[in-house]
Structure to design on (516 residues):
């Protein structure tokens, strides 16, 4: 399938995921109530750790299946799928065993933070969510094979349809009074159907049936060796993203309500991360070719500034608009009792913004095969996060969890990683930040000043309409100032290129370089 179609479907999937959760989450919160919503968030966080037993092998499966497909070696594809099927089924069984043990010990883990009734609900939910994870892992070989075949219509298309079905079915379940248990059961059913589509596509359509004879189990050792530091990164990322809610459940009294508030802030942060990761993934493909071409540190620095500026233009705008309007958004979206979730989101969005902006540096290190140390740094960040969060939760649960995460992210993933980029890639940090902030910072400050002024008008009394006007004014001012003096010629060309193509298609008189 055409890569452009794949990119388009990726953006459609991102939009569906964001807008469906934006619309569904308020309904979910109000249907469940703060305590049950907090339990739901806690169990989803605990379950996410079971998915780490994938051991980061997914990317390796795609790599090898793509290789054999390019070589038109059907037998090796079947044998490799046989290896991965055995491997993933074994992992799924391990997940069920570990999950059963965890379910038994849940009362011991959360005896401080949860009541007996809440623990009973948590165990019921976990029984279903661990099965969902097991089904997902058991069929991961087929899901990754679909990606290796570049059938984005199947992988992304199915995900889009199933996401919509999941939300609609969840709304019906809540209306019928099935509460959080109905939601996780729907997630299980949707996972089974989605994975069945992938399995049938690979076996029936592509005729790649797993072969279990003549299998080289040495593949598994090779794959795990290749994936080791990807695994470290995944573990660190998940710990940083999910540990706060789990630690609150263990150490904070009345944890379910606190986790509910934290969960709303974390949901907003996840939207921010999703947008950042999609920008990054689209802009990265040329980096491996750049490294293989033998470019020097000056070229790397220029490329890092080029990509970082584009990501920062988007994330910086979102961060600034949210800083002045986020409190209103949280209150309108989730309710007055979730007001503190704004502080959770905005505090963690700050280091996340720069971490994603500098993501090109990490991708360069991967292309240069120097990603081991950054992976270890992320593990240190996760451990520091756990230690600080445990200490600070005893001071103030919600505030302590957020501050602990902020310090760990800021120190390890910004300060230390920037030192790594300077040492390993050879970039000048002064030149990098001058290039990053040139033009963009003044535009953000102008937009922020106007946002502050508009907030004084009290338009939020008109509800969503007032909120939309406040945001629209900030975005419009930011966009205009960026076009006037914030963007360089390359960035303006990116903005106006689609319009030039449309003009050329309809008028056939060549491009109009409106950005000059």
């Amino acid at each position: 399938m055409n890569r452009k179609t794949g990119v388009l479907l990726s953006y459609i999937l991102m939009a569906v995921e964001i807008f469906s959760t934006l619309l569904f989450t308020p309904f979910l919160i109000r249907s469940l109530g703060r305590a049950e919503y907090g339990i739901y968030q806690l169990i989803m966080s605990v379950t996410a750790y079971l998915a780490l037993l994938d051991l980061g092998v997914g990317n390796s499966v795609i790599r090898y299946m793509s290789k054999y497909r390019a070589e038109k070696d059907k037998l090796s594809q079947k044998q490799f799928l046989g290896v991965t099927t055995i491997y993933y089924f074994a992992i799924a069984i391990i997940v069920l065993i570990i999950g059963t043990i965890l379910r038994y010990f849940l009362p011991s883990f959360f005896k401080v933070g949860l009541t007996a009734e809440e623990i009973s609900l948590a165990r019921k939910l976990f029984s279903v969510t661990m099965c969902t994870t097991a089904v997902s892992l058991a069929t991961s070989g087929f899901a990754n094979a679909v990606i290796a075949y570049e059938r984005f219509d199947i992988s992304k298309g199915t995900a889009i349809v199933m996401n919509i079905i999941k939300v609609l079915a969840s709304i019906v379940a809540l209306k019928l009074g099935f509460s959080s248990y109905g939601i996780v059961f729907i997630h299980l059913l949707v996972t089974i159907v989605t994975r069945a589509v992938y399995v049938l596509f690979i076996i029936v359509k592509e005729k790649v049936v797993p072969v279990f004879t003549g299998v080289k189990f040495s593949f598994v050792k090779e794959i795990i060796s290749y994936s080791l530091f990807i695994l470290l990164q995944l573990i660190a990322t998940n710990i940083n993203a999910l540990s706060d809610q789990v630690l609150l459940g263990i150490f904070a009294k009345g944890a379910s309500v606190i986790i509910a508030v934290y969960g709303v802030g974390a949901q907003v942060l996840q939207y921010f991360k999703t947008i950042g990761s999609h920008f990054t993934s689209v802009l990265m493909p040329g980096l491996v070719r750049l490294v293989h071409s033998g470019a020097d540190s000056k070229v790397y620095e220029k490329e890092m500034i080029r990509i970082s500026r584009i990501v920062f233009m988007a994330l910086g705008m979102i961060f600034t608009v949210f800083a002045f309007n986020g409190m209103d958004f949280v209150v309108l979206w989730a309710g007055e009792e979730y007001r503190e979730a704004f502080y959770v989101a905005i505090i963690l969005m700050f280091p996340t913004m720069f971490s994603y902006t500098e993501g090109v540096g990490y991708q360069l290190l991967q292309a240069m095969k120097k990603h081991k140390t950054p992976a270890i740094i992320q593990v240190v960040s996760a451990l520091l996060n756990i230690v600080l969060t445990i200490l600070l939760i005893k001071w103030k649960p919600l505030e302590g969890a957020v501050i602990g995460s902020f310090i760990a992210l800021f120190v390890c993933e910004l300060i230390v990683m920037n030192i790594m980029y300077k040492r390993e890639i050879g970039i000048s940090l002064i030149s990098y930040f001058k290039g990053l902030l040139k033009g963009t910072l003044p535009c953000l400050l102008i937009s922020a000043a106007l946002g502050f002024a508009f907030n004084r008008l009290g338009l939020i009394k008109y509800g969503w309409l007032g909120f939309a006007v406040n945001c629209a004014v900030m975005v419009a001012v930011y966009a205009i100032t960026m076009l006037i003096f914030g963007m360089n010629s390359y960035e303006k060309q990116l903005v106006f290129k689609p319009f030039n193509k449309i003009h050329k298609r309809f008028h056939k008189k060549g491009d109009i370089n409106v950005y000059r």
